[in-house]
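Ticket #4471: structure output looks truncated?

Reporter: J.K.
Steps to reproduce: submitted the chain below (315 residues) through the standard prediction queue, then opened the result file.
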Amino acid sequence: MRLPTIYQPVGFLAGPTASGKSALAIELAKRHNLAIVSADSMQVYRGMAIGTGAVTTPEQQGVPHYMIGIADPRDEFHAARFVTGLRSATNHEWTEEGRRCLVVGGTGMWIQAAREGLFEGPGRNDAVRARLRDDLAAQGSAELHRRLSLVDEESARRLAPADHVRIIRALEVFELTGKPLSLWQDEDRARRAALGELPPLVVLDPPRELLNERIAVRVDAMLAAGWLEEARALHALNLPDHAPPKKALGYRELFRVIEGEITLPQARELIITGTRQFARRQRVWFKAQRDARLVWPPSIDLLNDLIFGERSSDR
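Returned output as attached by the reporter:
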């Protein structure tokens, strides 16, 4: 189900990590009196501001920001919760402040859900998911991957055995419905292909060499700002293995430093390499999105034209 028109954001500004989305979004928001909704699957958690590059209160320059630091790090904050939060934010801003919202972030699945509607398959079932996690702990990832291949060969072929989260989800869907996740996804692709005009999506697309340099600078800046200390505070919570920080890029490497497995310089190199690989995956995802407009170098006037077009003179 898509958001009703009244709840639709004015547009979406996306791109890989370290591409400079936040500063441009704030400038655009100030020009048009907008609020910003963060579409970042890790910035949503409390206690992870430094390592996710969340915009600080001074950096927000008075622009209202939503979906940053609102969830417990023990929770799993999924796309359906994001769309619910987005609807709440857009409703509040429009009815109380007369403002529209701009969605900004790098989590492609969340942005796709907001633009094109949620996947209409079954919702999560915590009991089934907990049992599958127990099976993972007892039997190992290879066995769960083998089980998936028996009921959903297409998903098993697409997913690596180490991709625990998606394997468990695929098994969960089949157990709840008797229908493979891959078939649900085929039907959802057909639904999305039939949609009409979508809100504008502008994607920042810097050259790979430049992005790689910016990622290294960003990682060093985060470490200098106290990222390791932030990770220590999370580590002290004794989070369960399925908690998001345990899987989050950067935090998982810093947890290994805290536990004495690797040194901080080793963690730094792993984080930079992992972030560059993640950025490549983000770029592939966004380039495949319907009606995505890829830009570089960006300018506030160009973004204004792509998002508002002829409407810009009316605002």
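Triage note (M.O.): checked the attachment and the full token line is present. The two ends are 29 Å apart (CA to CA).
Status: closed, working as intended.
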